[in-house]
Amino acid sequence: MLLSNMDLVVTAPAGVAKLRELILSLAVQGRLVPQDPADEPASKLLQTIQEQKARLIAKGKIRRNKAQAKIAQHEKPFALPPGWEWVRLGALLPFRIGKTPASEDPQYWDQEGYAWVSISDMAHLGEVFDTQRKLTARGAQVFGYEPLPVGTLIMSFKLTIGKISVLRVPAYHNEAIVSLMPLCGLVTDFLKYMLPTVSKTGVSKEALMGTTLNTQSLSNLLIALPPAVEQSRIVARVEELMRLCDTLEARGPLEAAQHARLVDTLLGTLTGSNTPQELSAHWQRVRTHFDLLFDRPEAVDALEQTLLQLAVRGLLVPQDPGEEPASGLLQKICAEKDRLIAAGQLRPDKALAPLQAQEAPFRAPPGWEWARFGDVAAITSGVILGRKAAISAPVLLPYLRVANVQRWHLNLSSVKQVVIDQSELERFQIVRGDLLITEGGNRDKVGRTAIWRDELPVCLHQNHVFRVRGTSPDWNPVWAELYLNSVTARAYFAAASKQTTNLASINMTQLRLCAFPVPPLVEQARIVSRVEALRSLCADLRQRLSASQTVQTHLAEALLESVARLVPKPGSKWP
């Protein structure tokens, strides 16, 4: 059943990790390798261990454990295979909990000296070759015993529970770690795989995850012990299957990287198109393999970005020679702007140099024009926090900061307030249809643009958020938002911005100088409508893919659980 559905499991989110858990769970319950009646049973192994422990106690090498309660039937989480025995950890092997000398006392610590292990030094199912902190000889004396020898098994049992490693250097360890000393007939690697899994079965889980953890609770952990020879067979089988899991895990990122390259290559042919005819030819190739290419959310994200890039270049909708060209639209915008300045309703800006042909990032389609962004809209800065200004009629109002302005939307979960004078309200207030553009942030975040749609009755903007307002009824803020969030505009912001480590910022002059494509007004509306429809389709596709992955995860979990339930329950007959 599991083998026939392996693809379902390994391609599910965290599927390989769940498969590893199942392998270890089956291993410690005797379901991974067949039993051999010729093997010496675990009962004999336990007798040998008890004899060795008695000799070590007599020599003062280890301490005698407190008497332990007999294992009751209700404690046993599953039926044991023939030849196996239930035993408590304290009866199986000696263990020792570490300690931490005073952390700030220099007499105990040095850059060189005895290795001292903390949980952060451990790699689960790995090995410890070095530690971050070292003990002086005085620090080692606090422990009262020699460093633990190479090959000692150590396991975390506080904070991070069940993390297990093998020492490859003599060392001490802290009190969140227990060191385990396998006796004759116990295979160290079997214990390494078995002990972390013990925390997920029956009473052992309660002991490990209870509110108090001490020597007694560890000593009471319940262990299913196989014959010594079978321990080695289990280890060999586990390691074989873990190598297979490694291969499956490595295949996932490799396949994902190859898929991403394929998607980027084919989408690159779309954005590399210069005419609608070229785009149509390239799209046919993508369309033929659509289900294969866009079978994961990140591929749909790339598709959406490609569609946006095609939109701002005029390749998503046809041009109509009968429409008023953008040159006429620009004349109207400039005439209205001059009228507002003359009427004192708009402050004049410093004249911008005409846009040169080489500054245009792509060839404009027929009927389009290039302009400076500052020539088609009014750009203003916002209120400066902490300024020293005379305020005669104070009003407390909400304002937008950089964190509120995301790409395509506003995040108003946390909006702060500022005091301004009533007379400044018109200067700093944002109104419906205003564009909000971030001045700075991470390099890929500078220039984030969103539209204000009266989300709050009254709101201002901070000086690190530019407000952009159309000066003509023929201004389309949605088209502007579309272009300013495009790859093309973002590339301009990245190149023009002042950059420091991981941060970038643009000033108002750089924003005003941005090359801005102006299609005919009716075509802008067609482009915006097409983009909204396509983005909605992309959102639906992402949702369906996410739902499909959720279903796959549930099916994989159900399959693995059904395999795990094949283990016989206590009192039942082993098959």
UniProtKB/TrEMBL annotation:
Per the record, the GO terms for biological process are: DNA restriction-modification system
Which InterPro entries does the annotation name? Restrct_endonuc_typeI_TRD (IPR000055), Restrct_endonuc_typeI_TRD_sf (IPR044946), Type-I_RE_S_subunit (IPR051212)
Quick check: keyword DNA-binding in the entry? yes
Per UniProt, the keywords (alphabetical) are: DNA-binding, Restriction system
Which residues are in the Type I restriction modification DNA specificity domain? 83-251, 367-545
Query: Which GO terms fall under molecular function for this chain's record?
Result: DNA binding
Q: What does the sequence similarity comment in the record state about its family?
A: Belongs to the type-I restriction system S methylase family.
What this protein is called in its record is Restriction modification system DNA specificity domain
